[in-house]
Write a structure and sequence with these properties.
The protein has eleven helices and eleven strands. With 349 residues, the chain is α/β, with parallel strands linked by helices. Helix 3 runs parallel beside helix 8 and helix 9 runs parallel beside helix 11. It is globular, with a radius of gyration of 20 Å.
């Protein structure tokens, strides 16, 4: 007997990248940071009072919110923390989009967006990317909300801050959510939309500790927005899970965001390796758009074959056998040694 509801049966779950359980793999399929977290994270976890784990954590992540607020020059009341940016985004869908229509989103973007739309009865209006995979800003007008990743995934392309502000201006009747999971790898020409929250009450910017802070295993994400939006997220959180972040997660993330030197060092190392990898692939004749993320998007009419060849050589990449994506392979940036192995394998292919 099937006990699932009709709605549960209709859902198309998000499919995450392969997580190998055996050694020897080069894992370039889930956009993880190839470098370890800040040493200050290790200090915090080593000094943790295990006895304190019998107590519930701070439900509002006060210490972490304060640290994030100081980093981004906003008030703690403008910060909301959750169990990874996925939970933050899911709560935002429920709080601001549930039951609504004409929520604008790109046709190629983060694969969880359509899943949440199904789950929370959101009638999205899917807008096609341009032929060069960029977002056509002129299409995003007069909606009841907007959700897009900047930089976008899996394309790696980004909109300027002026373009983001134009989208917010053109959609005053709904919440505009900018998912900035990869913004720290974008470079100087692409800036975070966080400074715009003081001008626009309907703007919510979501970021994560999984990428540039190397804390994917802890699951910490946050949103920055006006007090009215943050209060809305708090309302949803407290009807779903009052304690989304454990005490160790809060302390570790606080240590990570305060260690700017380590963050900058590893961020720049990833950017350098990314740009070198793109240059090598282009020299081999591959079409690789410039990337503002910690991954690259390779275009080739043999993408499926290349994926299988890499897999056979214990190198994991990401391939979607779908319209518009079947000629592309997404490859996360690893260490220099890992990327050298990747390039060598591509040459043999």
């Amino acid at each position: 007997m099937n006990y699932l509801t009709e709605k549960a049966l209709r859902l198309t779950p998000y499919v995450s990248g392969i997580q190998p359980n055996e050694p020897g793999w080069i894992k370039l399929n889930t956009n993880e940071n190839p470098y370890p977290p800040s040493p200050k994270v290790a200090e915090v976890l080593s000094a943790a009072d295990i006895n304190a784990l019998r107590l519930y954590p701070d439900s509002d992540s006060t210490m972490l919110c304060k640290a994030i607020a100081e980093r981004y020059n906003v008030k703690p009341e403008n910060i909301f923390c959750g169990n990874g940016s996925d939970e933050v985004l899911a709560l935002a869908y429920q709080a601001f989009f549930s039951g609504k229509c004409d929520i604008f989103t790109p046709d190629i973007s983060y694969g969880f967006y359509p899943v949440w739309a199904q789950m929370y009865d959101v009638a999205t209006k899917v807008l096609p990317l341009c032929d060069d995979l960029s977002i056509d800003v002129s299409q995003y007008k007069n909606g009841n909300g907007v959700i897009l990743a900047n930089p976008n995934a899996p394309t790696g392309l980004a909109l300027t801050l002026d373009h983001i502000e134009l989208i917010v201006k053109n959609n005053p009747n709904g919440v505009v959510i900018i998912d900035e999971a990869y913004i720290d790898f974008a470079g100087a020409e692409v800036k975070s939309a966080v400074p715009l929250i003081s001008k626009y009450e309907n703007l919510l910017v979501v970021q994560t500790f999984s990428k540039s802070y190397s804390l994917a295993g802890l699951r910490v994400g946050f949103a920055v927005g006006s007090k009215v939006l943050i209060d809305g997220l708090q309302r949803l959180k407290n009807t779903f899970n009052s304690y989304p972040l454990g005490a160790l997660e809060q302390k570790a993330a606080t240590a990570a965001i305060c260690d700017i030197e380590h963050w900058e060092k590893t961020r720049q190392a990833t950017i350098k390796t990314r740009d070198n990898t793109i240059a090598e692939l282009r020299a081999m004749g591959y079409n690789v758009p410039s990337s503002h993320t910690n991954f690259i998007f390779i275009r080739t009419n043999r993408a499926g074959e290349l994926y299988e060849y890499l897999l056979a050589n214990k190198i994991l990449a990401r391939y979607w056998n779908k319209p518009k994506l079947c000629d592309y392979l997404r490859v996360s940036i690893g260490t220099d040694k890992e990327m050298e192995a990747f390039i060598g394998c591509v040459k043999r292919f």
